[in-house]
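Appendix B. Extra example for self-study. Work through it before the problem class; the solution is given directly after the inputs so you can check yourself.
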Amino acid sequence: MDLIAQKELPESEGADDHELCRAMGHILDRIGDKWTIMAVGALSDGPMRFNAMMRKIGGVSHRMLTLTLRGLEREGLLTRTAYPTIPPKVEYELTDLGRSLIAPLTLLADWAFENRPAMEQARLAYDKEHGGPAK
Amino acid sequence: MDLIAQKELPESEGADDHELCRAMGHILDRIGDKWTIMAVGALSDGPMRFNAMMRKIGGVSHRMLTLTLRGLEREGLLTRTAYPTIPPKVEYELTDLGRSLIAPLTLLADWAFENRPAMEQARLAYDKEHGGPAK
DNA sequence: CGGGATCCTCCAAGATACTG
DNA sequence: CAGTATCTTGGAGGATCCCG
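Solution. Structure tokens for the complete assembly:
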């Protein structure tokens, strides 16, 4: 996509545009999904235990949180530390890589916060003009 | 989530945290999905026709592009202009609101671009340490 | 050319229950 | 408390065909 057009290697004639596009798509599929963002947000001010995250995020199933965290661990965005006590205690913490995501994500969150009214109003206008919410 | 914690209204005791969380989730569900980002990216340097977008994005089905564009129009991120010629010609263009999304999205894209190697390496390490890619 | 409708598939994700 | 396994289903999304 063009958002990264300026990053094309000079010698590659843009033929790899698709490559970059698809790579972006892949990464955005990962970091762009709801629970990932929630999880990174939850961990943004320090390590946290599994159930604490579940409560903090709210509305996420046990299973989905587990899968999301596995994925993030795999991508190197967070670390998982299990203390073999009874009962078990597992702490999750962002890595440097994960923390570096906070800044761009915060900007996006800011955008969302600031433009929520505009979007809602636009939606109302659209729904009024056309028949009903969707169709 | 905490990414927007600093934006809590002073008088609301954080009870609306869930509200904000869910609102964020909703918006991120919209603007965070793959095709939306692709579409905004495609339109980031000027208006474009439907089929041109399809070619530029690549890998998107006719139907999904239509639905995505409808959604974006509804949220006020772009405008749709149909010229009743034969054959028909329809142009899509970002609104000011839509254009204001480019900046934060570019930052995210930059992050993705810069950290792609790190993520791939982390994934390889993870897969080597544990058995196989997923399980 | 662009959009809608229809059909069909398939997988993401919730619920539940068991283990260490 | 944390994780895994199994089952089930809703709906996202592709393919296809027809219309203006």
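Self-check: DSSP finds five helices and three strands in chain A. If your reasoning did not lead you there, revisit section 3.
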